[in-house]
Amino acid sequence: MKYQIRPAAAAPALDSAWDSASWKNVEALRIVNARPEGSNHCPETELKMQYTSDGIYGLFNVKDCYVKSTYTNFQDSVCRDSCVEFFFEIPGAGYFNLEMNAGCGMLLYYVRDNSRTADGFKDYTILPDEDMLMLKKFHTMPDVVDPEITEPTEYRVGFFIPFALIQKYTGCALPKAGTFWRMNAYKCGDRTSHPHWISWNPVSALNFHNPADFGVLEFC
Question: With a threshold of 0.90, does the pTM exceed it?
């Protein structure tokens, strides 16, 4: 699958509504490929993205139930909560895995070798706080959601990833029209009452950390 990310006329507001002027004309990708290991709960999840010379902006919209958000720190295991994720790989380099729960928690690693080990991966960097502070995140839910909300709930999670941060780890050139990266986007909730693992591009196993399963991100 392929997603075409287009340049924004100006930096879009992450706290804008899904159909606001900043976002209404941006193509949305749908995260619908559910792994059979999950429950029958399949939240309706979409992601819109655009970019400027400074970085990538994204906005998730989720129609969910069983919403839980308990992790609040950088690099906490937010995938155990109600979580949305954006993974992207630069040609000739490793990949980044941005993971965000419905509240204020956020995780970002840079993975060069995704071979599993007892403590993570064979070759990866857990980004320090000073790098995490270069990111921006917006969320419509409270910082903490506990106990779990069991009725239908709609929420948004927005993010900004600066190219300066990506270049710090990869040394890549700034993307322009005709640049191709690889990516996938996910919705999960590992330790909610209704666990689920859903992807944009289908994954061959219950493993989101497999770049072979990524689709194409084309800069236009």
Answer: yes
CA nearest neighbour of 19 among 154, 219, 198: 154
pLDDT digits (tens, 9 = 90+) for 34-43: 999 999 999 9
**CA-CA-CA-CA torsion sign (169, 136, 219, 205):** positive
Phi/psi region, residue 66 (left: phi>0; alpha: psi -120 to 50; beta: rest), is left
Helix, strand, or coil (residue 130): helix
Of 211, 194, 212, the closest CA to residue 66 belongs to: 194
Residue 72 and residue 96 in contact, taking contact as beta carbons nearer than 8 Å: no
Closest C-alpha among 70, 69, 66 to residue 150: 66
| Inter-residue contact 47 to 31 (CB < 8 Å) | yes
Task: Give the C-alpha separation, 11 to 24, whole Å.
Answer: 14
pLDDT for 119 equals 86
**In degrees to the nearest 10, what's the CA dihedral of 35, 36, 37, 39?**
100
Distances 117 to 31, 126, 207, 208 between C-alpha atoms, Å: 28, 15, 14, 16
| 87 vs 48: CA distance, rounded Å | 14
